[in-house]
Write a structure and sequence with these properties.
The structure is a single chain. This protein is an alpha+beta fold and 271 residues long. It contains seven helices and ten strands. It has a four-stranded antiparallel β-sheet. Strand 3 (61-66) and strand 4 form a beta hairpin. Helix 1 (4-16) packs parallel to helix 7 and helix 4 (137-145) crosses helix 7 (189-208). It is globular and about 55 Å long. The structure holds a DNA duplex (12 and 12 nucleotides).
Length: 271
DNA sequence: GAAGACCTGCTA
DNA sequence: TAGCAGGTCTTC
């Protein structure tokens, strides 16, 4: 579930909680596949005693830079989250210096932690982060015009642009008034301009609201403080199938595009 | 492209 | 109880 705004929120909160500069005293791994290919013993040995120098984010990856020079790269996938309080699906627990304990919670067990010498081995496969200047309108328009794919799966492709997931992709397309199945090379310069701005806009608003949460269950997004994301009420398209478009009052339609649930306005977003 | 795999829990 | 979920990977 976490997309760029949710991961950014979590990274900021971990920094605010003072996790940077702390030393990892002990590590307990309760679900070994999270840290594959390393064994629990190897992982613990390499991480224990390390100081977390900085916490950063690229796309949906969170990066803990360790004093050793290695980087702990964390992908939350569908349901990963962090908490400073013990919970019911804590897959990794790290005791830090100064009495802090970090709980990595992941109901669905999809999240992955990778301890790497060089983060570029993973980041090199990603397109530019959507909220950086590297993700420029020039790059975006060029890339879209040179592909012949449906626009929604294209902007979801992390190798093209890093950070968008299913919620913010639907939101950006709704805002730009572009049908999710439009072919990328059929979009006019004006449409691409709108979409470029919409992508930056919906992600920035998402960050400002500390992410999006939908339901109320254990798989639902929570930030480090256990709060739901404030962007919930601001969603215009995602999950609103059958409800009126806030722009034109037409009922939003729900379909499947490239195997992902997709909601759009059949009047504002024409094929 | 598409479909299945990886998982658990919520909703209808 | 079946179907679906914010993500990615692998294998056709």
């Amino acid at each position: 579930m976490p997309e760029l705004p949710e991961v950014e929120t979590i990274a900021r909160q971990l920094r605010a909680r003072g996790v940077e500069g702390k030393t990892i005293l002990t590590v307990k791994v309760n679900w070994a596949p999270t840290i594959q290919p390393l064994s629990v013993a190897q992982f613990s040995r390499q991480v224990r005693g390390q100081t977390i120098d900085t916490i950063s984010r690229v796309g949906k990856w969170m990066l803990f830079s360790l004093r050793s020079g290695q980087t702990l790269m964390i992908h939350l996938r569908m349901a990963g989250s962090f908490s400073m309080e013990q919970g019911s699906h804590d897959r990794i627990v790290m005791k830090l210096s100064d009495g802090l304990t970090l709980y990595y919670r992941d109901t669905r067990k999809f999240g992955r932690w990778k301890l790497v010498d060089d983060p570029q081995v993973i980041l090199g496969n990603l397109g530019p982060d959507a909220l950086t200047r590297r993700f420029s309108r020039h790059y975006f328009k060029d890339t879209m015009k040179n592909r012949h794919r449906m626009i929604k799966p294209l902007i979801l492709d992390q190798g093209i642009v890093a950070g968008l997931g299913n919620i913010y992709a639907d939101e950006a397309l709704w805002e730009a008034q572009i049908h999710p199945e439009r072919l990328s090379d059929s979009l006019s310069d004006e449409e691409l301009e709108r979409l470029f701005r919409a992508i930056k806009h919906v992600l920035n608003i998402g960050v400002r609201n500390r992410g999006t949460s939908l339901g109320a269950g254990k798989t639902n997004y929570r930030d480090v403080e256990g709060e739901s994301g404030g962007h919930r009420e601001k969603v215009k398209a995602y999950g609103r199938g059958g409800k009126p478009c806030t722009r034109c009052k037409m009922l939003l339609e729900r379909t499947v595009v490239a195997q992902r649930g997709t909601t759009y306005c059949p009047a504002c977003q024409r094929i």
